[in-house]
Amino acid sequence: MVKAVAVITISDTCFKDNSKDTSGPALADYVRELFPEANLHTIIIPDEKEIIERELKYFCDTNLDLVLTTGGTGLTPRDVTPEATKAIIQREVPGITTAITLASLKKTPMAQLSRAVAGVREKTLIINFPGSKKAVTECFEVVKPILPHAISLIHNEVVEVSYIHNSMQFNHTCKHSSNVDISKVALRPRESPFPMVEMSEAWKMVDDVMSEWTERLEIVTIEEGLGRVVAQTLHAKEPMPPFPASVKDGYACLSIDGAGVRRVRTAVTAGDAPTAPLCAGECARVNTGAALPAGADCVVQVEDTKLVSASEDGQTELEVEILKAPEPQQDVRNVGFDIPMGTVLVDKGQILDSAKIGILAGAGYQNVTVRVPPKVALLSTGNELQEPSEVKLKPAHIRDSNRTMLRMLLKEHGYDSIDCGIARDSPPEIVAGIAAALKLADVLVCTGGVSMGEKDLLKPVLLKDFNATLHFGRVRMKPGKPCTFATCEFEGKKKYIFALPGNPVSAYVCALVFVVRALRRGECARAAWPRLRVRLAHGAQLDARPEYARAALELHADRDMPYATMLGSQCSSRLLSACGANILLELPAATPSLQRLPAGAIVPALVTGRLDIYS
Ligand SMILES: Nc1nc2c(c(=O)[nH]1)N[C@H]1C(S)=C(S)[C@@H](COP(=O)(O)OP(=O)(O)OC[C@H]3O[C@@H](n4cnc5c(N)ncnc54)[C@H](O)[C@@H]3O)O[C@H]1N2
Ligand code: MOO
Ligand SMILES: [Mg+2]
């Protein structure tokens, strides 16, 4: 889908007098017609190579799908659009400009004089058009049929994903080979070669690695920005309220007049612009939110007044009595009372919520630059797995629940993911699955095959076939002991791999405490989960490893602290223990003197779910 497009008019004349720009608005109209859903940005800039390059780069770096320029493609000394475009694109697409020239030559030999360029920078297609409305109209007609497809190709997703879905059908059997030798099962290690790291060390390793994540930005509408991390500081461009406004329904007065009878000179309801200033002894009937007339410095609520005289038909008050002498500024919201001009409305790094978006809407902001989270791919591994959609189970098989659970878990926390299917437990298939996933994503989350069995091949494949660095391969935690975090270079880019244990609860817990946490860290350098101290509603047996027990939080009006109830058997295959969980209790490891915590014991808990969900 085409999400954002920019139309840049490049012309000294139009820059000085925007009303002279006819080709920019025409091009903008064509774009709106072709991509009605897209967010459209239009700017006018002078024929300055540096400025053109800077603006083109800005739009590419903010992940726009398409940038169309109009102007500056000819032969006069100031025409530098093609030079600026060439300087910033990474790949040229000469076919587009050839097609435009061929079509234009049929209309005018002058087409020979155009030096327009088309090319791609990162994920953005840039096309130069000439500077007249007529030329823009003709040229757009030429490129219109290929634009959506070209953009999909640049984005890689549609084509790649459908390739996996249609031709590979989740069957990662294509011609990949592996360096992993599986012939000597009997000689496999009897002890894990991976040191068992503590949780704190594991978090530190993930944090250190993810802090290298390079920031990518995109411009979205403020509404699309919900839950996203803002990459720019936005200030109030005007004060709120922009005029002195009444806080009450009553009468705007001069406080200096004190109590007593006033002539009601006018009435101002919300939305009316007041006219002449009030004079001494006068007042104006006002509504909450109405603009105060000049001269008035206070409002007296209607409850503190008495009618003295009215017009014969009873429609207007002529005089009212102010019963209590008002204070200056009483019940007035002065200019900028709520938001002074220049106030920081949202700051770089903050997450947009409903109130912030409301404030941006009120301040006239329509778009906002946000950070782009890493792309995540999901891959399941296991010979025993069938697609969840398969009705009949084969002998000794189960349906794959991890991929669906993880996709939903990531979605719950604001992250999309790409489904890369199931890879069988053979090195070439795992290589194929991982390679397909790494082509599409920055972060791979796979499950299964990380423990001690002869079919647990993830770690050797990562090491031997992807030359990966395994930052850790075992963590002292329950569930999730064999959880693995690795990085590797793939097609020139650094990739981050979370190889989670196959047990459904282990995958669930590790996804929360490592993957979602890391994505948050990468996106906004913030740790994911708030910690609470909670009381156990019942006793809890402790394990040799620190345990993340899935529990539901209960708040009782008559109790001092929230209570936590564990959700049944905490076996790592039993995903029912995570259903309705909104906290992960951080139970300490057992010691010789402490094997069990009694009911009422206080333990820390990570708040990982919505507090309004109860089991
Ligand atoms: N000798 C040892 N055996 C095991 C150890 C150990 O230290 N020594 N660790 C155990 C722990 S702890 C865990 S956790 C598991 C981790 O297993 P793997 O990551 O190797 O995963 P698999 O063997 O592939 O599968 C384990 C389990 O999970 C089921 N599974 C796998 N994928 C899915 C899926 N996509 N959807 C639903 N269920 C899935 C699979 O059928 C197995 O039952 O190893 C212990 N063993
Ligand atoms: O650590 Mo495993 O995840 O207990 O089952
Ligand atoms: Mg295993």
UniProtKB/TrEMBL annotation:
**Lineage of this protein's species?**
Eukaryota, Metazoa, Ecdysozoa, Arthropoda, Hexapoda
Q: Which UniProt keywords apply?
A: Magnesium, Metal-binding, Molybdenum, Molybdenum cofactor biosynthesis, Transferase
Q: Does the keyword tRNA processing apply?
A: no
**Which cofactors go with this protein?**
Mg(2+)
Pathway(s)? Cofactor biosynthesis; molybdopterin biosynthesis
What reaction is this protein's catalytic activity?
Answer: molybdopterin + ATP + H(+) = adenylyl-molybdopterin + diphosphate; adenylyl-molybdopterin + molybdate = Mo-molybdopterin + AMP + H(+)
Provide the protein name: Gephyrin
GO MF annotation, one: molybdopterin adenylyltransferase activity
